[in-house]
């Protein structure tokens, strides 16, 4: 698998905050940034899926109990 290098520029305040944060981490800065980025991306997709589910539920308000579902599927 190939990798790609990306440059991120931080202003002085951002760099100071990163330096302070890195004092508490046991990992390289690149790992911390990568994990944070992908966590944020996962949160974005989770939020998007939740929004879609809420919209679907508004348009389709019918709910089934477990018993009703098993009966409908013939799985008593």
Write the layout of secondary structure elements.
Layout: H1 12-22, H2 29-59, H3 66-73
Shape label? elongated
From the N-terminal CA to the C-terminal CA, the straight-line distance is 49 Å
Count of individual beta strands: 0
Reading the helices and strands in chain order gives HHH
Unreliable spans: none
Per DSSP, the total helix count is: 3
The structure class reads mainly alpha
Sheet with the most strands, sense and barrel status: none
Query: What is the C-alpha radius of gyration, as a whole number of Å?
Result: 23 Å
Query: What helical percentage do the residues reach?
Result: 55-70%
Mean pLDDT: 94
Proportion of beta-strand residues:
under 5%
Give an account of the 3D structure:
With 76 residues, this protein is mainly α. The protein has helices at residues 12-22, 29-59, 66-73. The protein has three helices and no strands. The mean pLDDT is 94.
């Amino acid at each position: 698998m190939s990798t790609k290098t990306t440059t991120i520029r931080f202003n002085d305040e951002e760099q100071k905050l990163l330096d302070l944060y890195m004092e508490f981490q046991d990992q390289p800065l690149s790992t911390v940034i990568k994990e944070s980025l992908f966590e944020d991306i996962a949160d974005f997709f989770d939020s998007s899926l939740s929004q879609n589910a809420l919209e679907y539920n508004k348009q389709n308000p019918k709910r089934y109990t477990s018993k009703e579902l098993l009966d409908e599927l013939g799985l008593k």
